[in-house]
Amino acid sequence: MHLKIVVLGFVFCCFGIAAGSANDEVSVSLYLAENIPPPPQALVAPEKLHHRLREVFGFEHYELLKRGEIDLKSHWEQWVLPRKDFFIRLEPLPNKTGETPLLDYELYKDGFIVAKGQYEPHEGTPLFINGPDFKQGRLIFVLEAR
């Protein structure tokens, strides 16, 4: 079975007003999307994010597995390793004066790059990265400006 990776960026604007600019951090979250309810003690996606994830991926539940912050002022690459065979590399790119910083990403599956791109973080514009099937659902990375 071939892994299909879909990278989805969303720009949500209300009544023509652009989303605000990003702070200096990006939240990196890994969710397990399933149709069966997570355990009662599990952390789940906030309501607004849950609604967006459900619209895009169609699963009923989104359990938070791992969360971290990426400092956009750092020049060090960072790795999120949920599994040996599936991980993401994130690297803040140098910022030119007055421009929104960019975050370079590469998603790896079985040692191969399956998706890559750049994320320009703005509040209210998360980037969803569709990962491989896992258990009875799917792994999904969410990058969000903080």
The unreliable regions are: 1-22
**Hey, roughly how much beta strand do the residues contain?**
over 45%
Share of helical residues: under 10%
Number of strands: 9
**Main sheet: strands, sense, barrel:** 5 strands, antiparallel
Which structural class do you get from the secondary structure elements? mainly beta
The CA-CA distance between the termini, in Å, is 36 Å
Main-sheet strand order equals: 1-8-9-2-3
Mean pLDDT figure: 81
Description:
- This protein is mainly β and 146 residues long.
- The chain has one domain (22-145).
- 8% of the residues lie in helices and 47% in strands.
- The chain has 1 helix and 9 strands, in the order E-E-H-E-E-E-E-E-E-E.
- It has one helix at residues 47-57; strands spanning 7-9, 25-34, 61-71, 78-83, 86-92, 103-109, 112-119, 127-134, 137-145.
- The strands form 2 sheets. It has a 5-stranded antiparallel β-sheet with strand order 1-8-9-2-3.
- A hairpin with a 2-residue loop joins strand 6 (103-109) and strand 7 (112-119).
- The longest helix is centred in the middle third of the chain and has 11 residues, at 47-57.
- It is globular and about 45 Å long.
- The protein starts with 6 loop residues before the first strand and ends with a strand.
- Mean pLDDT is 81; it is low at 1-22.
